[in-house]
Amino acid sequence: MSQNKNFQARVIATHGHHNLIQLDDASTMEARRRGKKKDLVVGDRVVCQLSSDHQAVVESILPRESLLFRSDEIRTKPLASNIDQVAVVFATRPTYNPVFIWKAILASETANIPIIIIRNKCDFTEDEPEVRPFIQHLQNLGIEVIEVSAVNNPQETEKILQPIFEHKVTLLIGQSGMGKSTILNLLIKEAKQRTQEYSVALNLGKQTTTSTHWFDYLEDSAIVDSPGFQEFGLAHLTINDIMRGMPEIYQRVEECRFTNCRHLEEPGCGIKKAVEDGEIDPRRYAFYRELVEKI
Ligand SMILES: Nc1nc2c(ncn2[C@@H]2O[C@H](COP(=O)(O)OP(=O)(O)OP(=O)(O)O)[C@@H](O)[C@H]2O)c(=O)[nH]1
Ligand SMILES: [Mg+2]
Ligand SMILES: [Zn+2]
């Protein structure tokens, strides 16, 4: 490739100022961002120039078709761009946090990205009584839950997941130790991402994957593996985003006396009535309140 000639590529990993891009012929190259900007996100389609033998400079980012965020009080963190669906992976060991999954649903809905939930490690059958109501609850929210056992039943898992992942770009997210990289390795044999036993003593994953990485899958698909994290911050959401992302609230907003009801202390609130009548899960309402009170 001659110098000064523009070419397009995909950002497949970012590490501070070192980024890895993949060209359309599947070769990879190190790239730095023009002007030392730190605005590249895994999944970005970029326009580059060759700067030296095996180095590229990212000149610009093509418009993103989708972008998933999480945030904390200080800043918003993009997780990945140009993805078609988010797959949240959870398991009963180490322990999962329903609030993490609820937040992931809100973040995806707000970003207009379809979400599916993968319950992994189904081989822990003794956890069934505890997990079954939660799965039923997710299904009641209208969310597809897929149940697999990537280690103990790999063939079946691959058979179930392939039709769900093909023709799409899927971002795997979830708390540490749930089996994201195990699932990735199963579907993409060449990926060879590191996996590691979770800590039984702490009942927590060991943060094995340390950075987000894009892997091509089949002819026209990709799977993006990401590091597990515990806190899914949603400081970037508005009250409308929160309401829209919670079907049991959104379906009932007509029942409130005031059209601008925030379902907190307002009189004649249909949502609070539904909570009192046992039609809305009080834990979901507490979750709603906590998010809205932070705004
Ligand atoms: N019993 C059982 N163990 C599993 C299953 N899937 C994955 N594991 C194990 O769970 C542990 C964690 O798996 P990883 O794939 O490293 O988890 P991860 O979600 O990528 O974790 P982070 O990279 O830290 O976010 C590994 O020891 C896996 O072998 C399963 O279906 N059943
Ligand atoms: Mg991992
Ligand atoms: Zn209300």
Describe the structure in your own words.
The protein has 295 residues and is of the alpha/beta class. It has 3 domains: 6-61, Nucleic acid-binding proteins (OB fold (Dihydrolipoamide Acetyltransferase, E2P)), CATH 2.40.50; 67-225, Rossmann fold, CATH 3.40.50; 239-293, Probable gtpase engc, domain 3 (Ribonucleotide Reductase Protein R1, domain 1), CATH 1.10.40.50. The protein is 25% helix and 26% strand. It is built from 8 helices and 13 strands. It has helices spanning 98-110, 128-140, 154-165, 180-187, 239-244, 247-250, 270-276, 282-293, and strands at residues 6-15, 18-23, 28-33, 45-52, 55-61, 67-71, 76-81, 85-90, 115-119, 145-147, 169-173, 213-217, 221-225. The strands form 3 sheets. Strands 10-9-8-11-13-12 form a 6-stranded mixed beta sheet, sandwiched between helices. β12 and β13 (221-225) form a beta hairpin. The model has no long low-confidence stretch (mean pLDDT 95). The site of zinc ion (ZN) has 7 residues, from α7. Zinc ion (ZN) binds at residues 256, 261, 263, 266, 269-271.
